[in-house]
Amino acid sequence: MPSRKFADGEVVMGRWPGSVLYYEVQVTSYDDVAHLYTVKYKDGTELALKESDIRSQSSFKHRKSQSSSSSPSRRSSSRSRSRSRSPGRPAKGRRRSASQSRDQKDDKKKTIQETSLALLVLVLFKPSENNTKRYNGEPESTEKNDTSCIILEQKLKPDLEIKRVLEQYSLRSRKDDKKKEEIYSEKKTFVAVKPIEKVSTKTKELEFGGRIGTLMLILLLPATVFYLLLMCKQDDPSLLNLPPLPALESLWDGRVFGVFLLWFFLQALFYLLPIGKVVEGLPLSSGRRLQYRINGFYAFLLTAAAIGVLLYFQFELHYLYDHFMQFAVSAAAFSLALSIYLYVRSLKAPEEELAPGGNSGYFIYDFFTGHELNPRIGSFDLKYFCELRPGLIGWVVINLAMLLAEMKIHNLSVPSLSMMLVNGFQLLYVVDALWNEEAILTTMDITHDGFGFMLAFGDLVWVPFVYSLQAFYLVGHPITITWPVAAAITVLNCIGYYIFRSANSQKNNFRRNPADPKLANLKFIPTATGKGLLVTGWWGFVRHPNYLGDIIMALAWSLPCGFNHILPYFYVIYFICLLVHREARDEHHCKQKYGLAWERYCQRVPYRIFPYIY
């Protein structure tokens, strides 16, 4: 094993990934397996660098130019020659002024060249999102509305004009200019084609309690879903009144599993239809951008039309309610089989296609979090498809089935007010997600988390069967509410939805086009990734205003179920825990990614989700 060259705590010069620029860094640790140094820049950025990308500070000391001093003999001969002047040479005073003029021109040209070179380096080697997305970190910067490029252009304009005049009346031979252009062209070509070295590292920081925690989650998540559904079926769904365990043979029905498969592949067919626009996702670590077809809302309309046809031919949709537990078991079995397939295929995936958070080398952990970032079969993106289609649209279909089941069981001509509120609120949420489908491409689920058991089970089981818990509860435990109460709950849901949607729209519009005149009033902290951290608007109120709106809506969805039991409030309790945990994950990733810029943002916006509370 080769010995390390630089010690912990040593101050050295580290090359910024993807560029030829070196900055002063401090070595913090060394990975003996990957042979990588973890270094920390002055701005708090922490990167993993190879030894070849690190140099000692002594190699960057400025050397005294040898051309500045000439030999004594050369100086004396120069003086002796200068005493005798040929008739063709100008007078001494005149010669001095001409020499000074040439020196001024040379100094001016040198200043222009240095300024232009600085601008060229800034353009060519500015750390972009591709370079820093994997490595994390930010330089020091202040809040601004970015006009630095315009100011720099105005400052350079007179110098560039002088440079143009000097070049136009230059006395150098065109042969020298041509030769200089060829050399510059070769250098430019060399810079353009120089490959960016990639550093592949294992996942060092394990989340969700590591291997033991993820193993427990794999066992507890399905158990929690089945427990909640069994509790809702009881006449007294109190926490202390444990439900009896059903017979194992009653949990499985081949016909139900066939219906579930039909539903899954019908949504896959809608996804493959050549309707809707095609957009590019965020750049991957390799710089490549994947393409996604945005047609979730069209899939929802086609599903609504298909359900309408079934109801027209008097298909009993409350079949879902009668076999709800069996549908949940079928979905869980399918998600487990899908997770196994995803992990097996990920073993052959290239290193650059693995998820940054699911490449630990531990089977259980990578199986749960997802080993491959974007598993695809051709152009069919499995993670992106499951994120919104089968589970989210299925959630609305299940709610509709519960509404029809309530009407049939209780002999109602119209659904109860509580059931209509729950259906209406959650329908609005799903339609909003599908209408703004493109925004999901910037979420952590797509950009960071791999596709494993966590997302497969969450998308196909947890979302449709737990998020519909209020509607399922109301079928067996009807609640009567008055119109004023319904109006107050509606207002609460509208407030939550307004915060949720306006905050997300503000963020997405700023990411899409920060120079939009409509966003000119927004202040932000610039970062080296090219993104800005908003410190005004909703994002200057709390760090995660969209989470605040989500929680308010979750409470509004549970209130129509009354206060007889805590079971229908499981969703809002779970959602608060989920978003607090996700906020902690966001904080950790953002601190690594943005460095001191994120610390300044946290000082400016101290509250995470709940203003003046948390």
Automatic annotation (TrEMBL):
<dbReference type="InterPro" id="IPR018083">
    <property type="entry name" value="Sterol_reductase_CS"/>
</dbReference>
<feature type="transmembrane region" description="Helical">
    <location>
        <begin position="562"/>
        <end position="581"/>
    </location>
</feature>
<keyword id="KW-1133">Transmembrane helix</keyword>
<feature type="region of interest" description="Disordered">
    <location>
        <begin position="53"/>
        <end position="111"/>
    </location>
</feature>
<dbReference type="GO" id="GO:0005789">
    <property type="term" value="C:endoplasmic reticulum membrane"/>
</dbReference>
<keyword id="KW-0753">Steroid metabolism</keyword>
<comment type="pathway">
    <text>Steroid biosynthesis; cholesterol biosynthesis.</text>
</comment>
<comment type="similarity">
    <text>Belongs to the ERG4/ERG24 family.</text>
</comment>
<keyword id="KW-0472">Membrane</keyword>
<dbReference type="GO" id="GO:0006695">
    <property type="term" value="P:cholesterol biosynthetic process"/>
</dbReference>
<keyword id="KW-0675">Receptor</keyword>
<keyword id="KW-0539">Nucleus</keyword>
<dbReference type="GO" id="GO:0050613">
    <property type="term" value="F:Delta14-sterol reductase activity"/>
</dbReference>
<keyword id="KW-0443">Lipid metabolism</keyword>
<keyword id="KW-1207">Sterol metabolism</keyword>
<dbReference type="InterPro" id="IPR001171">
    <property type="entry name" value="ERG24_DHCR-like"/>
</dbReference>
<keyword id="KW-0560">Oxidoreductase</keyword>
<keyword id="KW-0752">Steroid biosynthesis</keyword>
<keyword id="KW-0444">Lipid biosynthesis</keyword>
<feature type="compositionally biased region" description="Low complexity">
    <location>
        <begin position="66"/>
        <end position="75"/>
    </location>
</feature>
<keyword id="KW-0963">Cytoplasm</keyword>
<keyword id="KW-0153">Cholesterol metabolism</keyword>
<feature type="transmembrane region" description="Helical">
    <location>
        <begin position="455"/>
        <end position="475"/>
    </location>
</feature>
<feature type="domain" description="Tudor">
    <location>
        <begin position="4"/>
        <end position="62"/>
    </location>
</feature>
<feature type="transmembrane region" description="Helical">
    <location>
        <begin position="521"/>
        <end position="542"/>
    </location>
</feature>
<dbReference type="Pfam" id="PF01222">
    <property type="entry name" value="ERG4_ERG24"/>
</dbReference>
<keyword id="KW-0152">Cholesterol biosynthesis</keyword>
<dbReference type="GO" id="GO:0005637">
    <property type="term" value="C:nuclear inner membrane"/>
</dbReference>
<protein>
    <recommendedName>
        <fullName>Delta(14)-sterol reductase LBR</fullName>
        <ecNumber>1.3.1.70</ecNumber>
    </recommendedName>
</protein>
<feature type="transmembrane region" description="Helical">
    <location>
        <begin position="481"/>
        <end position="500"/>
    </location>
</feature>
<keyword id="KW-0812">Transmembrane</keyword>
<dbReference type="GO" id="GO:0003677">
    <property type="term" value="F:DNA binding"/>
</dbReference>
<feature type="transmembrane region" description="Helical">
    <location>
        <begin position="294"/>
        <end position="313"/>
    </location>
</feature>
<keyword id="KW-0256">Endoplasmic reticulum</keyword>
<feature type="transmembrane region" description="Helical">
    <location>
        <begin position="325"/>
        <end position="344"/>
    </location>
</feature>
<dbReference type="InterPro" id="IPR002999">
    <property type="entry name" value="Tudor"/>
</dbReference>
<dbReference type="Pfam" id="PF09465">
    <property type="entry name" value="LBR_tudor"/>
</dbReference>
<keyword id="KW-0597">Phosphoprotein</keyword>
<dbReference type="InterPro" id="IPR019023">
    <property type="entry name" value="Lamin-B_rcpt_of_tudor"/>
</dbReference>
<feature type="transmembrane region" description="Helical">
    <location>
        <begin position="250"/>
        <end position="273"/>
    </location>
</feature>
<feature type="compositionally biased region" description="Basic and acidic residues">
    <location>
        <begin position="102"/>
        <end position="111"/>
    </location>
</feature>
<feature type="transmembrane region" description="Helical">
    <location>
        <begin position="212"/>
        <end position="230"/>
    </location>
</feature>
